[in-house]
Amino acid sequence: MPAPIYKRVLLKLSGEALMGSRDYGLDNQTVKDIAVDIKGVVELGVEVCLVVGGGNIFRGVAGASSGMDRAQADSMGMLATVMNALAMQSALERAGVATRVQSAIPMSSVCEPFIRRRAERHMEKGRVVIFAAGSGNPFFTTDTAAALRAAEMKCDALFKGTQVDGVYSADPRKNPNAERYVSLTYLDMLARDLAVMDAAAISLARENKLPIIVFNIHEPGAFTAVMQGEGKFTTVV
Ligand code: UDP
């Protein structure tokens, strides 16, 4: 079995990734499949942490566009990520993976508060740490929170699980001529406005020399394969 190419990684899971083919909420089988894939990576000896999004439940921008105060709507979005984090924790623990959820908005009867040094210790012990509630601040996204936590946790790479196996010149589900990039620079991503992660997340990754690996979260075993340098993915460096 090829050795893993990274020792410590952060995987960003969007709310959409947990939704499967539904148009709202969580799909249990999808969450379970992702948990099994994460287990495969943990079994390679890689230290893994996660940032989960909440767009399958609530997005602040949508709330604001229907008249809510933006900061208030963002708080609701962050709470949505906590629900997803708890669902992911449950699926991982059922798969036999030790986990801890840490929330950027403290809610001590549900999970731990975010404490960087404690999170690091969990990871050293082989536990998967699931970071919930994004950055804890409105006007941010969980992509940016993922780049932030990856930098704080001294991760070797930021994995972004998407619906397709990398970054394409156009949406491959709509355009059959779309080409997959094997590798891109952060500046390419910013200049071409490739809608994989927001600009704040890419800038933060760039400043911290954190490679972003974009791969298909729905292909069984893809996370493990990519971790061994196999399969299809795009590297942003
Ligand atoms: N959010 C926030 N601050 C953060 C991260 C997220 O206010 O640091 C809110 C924001 O309203 C966002 C929602 O939480 O729309 C869900 O996160 P996101 O849209 O990033 O989820 P994803 O698209 O990954 O499912």
Question: Would you give an account of this structure?
Answer:
The protein is an alpha/beta fold. The chain has a single domain, classed as Acetylglutamate kinase-like (Carbamate kinase), CATH 3.40.1160.10. Helices cover 37% and strands 19% of the residues. The strands form 2 sheets. It has a 9-stranded mixed β-sheet with strand order 4-3-5-2-1-6-10-11-9, sandwiched between helices. β1, α1 and β2 form a beta-alpha-beta unit. The model has no long low-confidence stretch (mean pLDDT 96). Uridine-5'-diphosphate (UDP) binds next to α2, α3 and α5. This is Uridylate kinase. Belongs to the UMP kinase family. It catalyses: UMP + ATP = UDP + ADP.
Secondary structure blueprint with pairings:
Elements: E1 8-13, H1 28-43, E2 47-52, H2 60-65, H3 70-94, E3 99-103, E4 112-113, H4 116-124, E5 128-132, H5 142-152, E6 157-162, E7 167-168, E8 180-181, E9 183-184, H6 186-191, H7 199-207, E10 212-216, H8 222-227, E11 234-236
Parallel strand pairs: 1-2, 1-6, 2-5, 3-4, 3-5, 6-10, 9-11
Antiparallel strand pairs: 7-8, 10-11
Bound molecules: uridine-5'-diphosphate.
Uridine-5'-diphosphate binds next to helix 2, helix 3 and helix 5.
